[in-house]
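Lab intake sheet, docking and co-folding queue.

SAMPLE TYPE: protein with bound small molecule
LIGAND NAME: S-adenosylmethionine
LIGAND FORMAT: SMILES
REQUESTED OUTPUT: full 3D complex as structure tokens
PRIORITY: normal
SUBMITTED BY: R.K., bench team

The fields below were copied directly from the construct record.
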Amino acid sequence: MVGVLKAAGEGTRLRLLALLADGDHSVKDLTEILKQSQPRVSRHLKLLADAGLIARNAEGAWAYYGLAEDGDGAALAQWLIARIDDSDADRRRDIERQQAVRAAQQARATQYFAKVANSWNLLATLHVPEEAVEAAVIEALGGRKVETLIDLGTGTGRMLELLSPSYKRGIGLDSSREMLAVARSRLASAGVANAQVRLGDIGDPDVVVGPADVIIIHQVLHYFDDPGRMLGQARRLLKRGGEMIIVDFAPHDLEFLRTEHAHRRLGVSQGQMSGWAAAAGLEIAGWREFPSQDTENGLTVCLWRLTDKI
Ligand SMILES: C[S@@+](CC[C@H](N)C(=O)[O-])C[C@H]1O[C@@H](n2cnc3c(N)ncnc32)[C@H](O)[C@@H]1O
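RESULT FIELD (auto-filled):
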């Protein structure tokens, strides 16, 4: 117990706990926020992880840190965080830097999509079984026609086009003006009149676009350092009893997707998804896997159905 209290009882480590309470981060982010050297930050993180206050998840060449989800360490971390004063000057500065780090990541993704908007066909090069996945997305809606469907990270608007017969009002949100331009022309030429697309940040969505009966997040989660936090934000747009359909990659080790294609997370495991869903007040109602057509170089895609726990 003394070891755990010593781990928590230090200024930088308390700051780290408060930062991680707002979502997972890589060491690089935390180094930028705290303005301390990477070895120093790593040492603090190791002490917190050894004490069971936080958890480390290695993912390819990077590691992400988040608060521990269960055990005495998790309970103690929550107790401490609830007592940290957000109006404290140091804490306010940390919050500002945390927002700046997130904004810079968002800007990098936006720059990437501005560049590739007119030629975006990465999924095809990864041998993803797109037709089977699209059929499963339609099937997940079970032939219903819902009032409002929101497509987060709509990109070229493909999901809005595909699901157009299944909703009365479709709204696509995306942070890239260039992608939205492609989506508008695609929806117009496909004759989709019941959908519109808007500029917006999913990390901080404007709740006036909701609430939705169904939210779809297709190949977007891996652009976020903390997909769990993003799901929590998306949950604010969902009607009570509503449903989310999420499509993303299973865990993989294609590091070039980070260096060349703005990905942050190398896929999503079942364990991660169930933890993030539970934290967002959702539960996994079903999931399916779609292995790549190319067993050597391709990626497996997963589809999850998350329902509101009410
Ligand atoms: C790989 S594309 C997927 C597009 C679409 N869902 C599809 O499957 O065709 C990812 C999209 O997410 C958008 N995006 C990334 N970060 C975002 C954010 N923070 N807010 C809104 N859109 C974002 C990008 O601009 C891009 O259009």
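REVIEWER NOTE: Residues 232 and 279 are 7 Å apart (CA to CA).
SIGN-OFF: pending second check by T.M.
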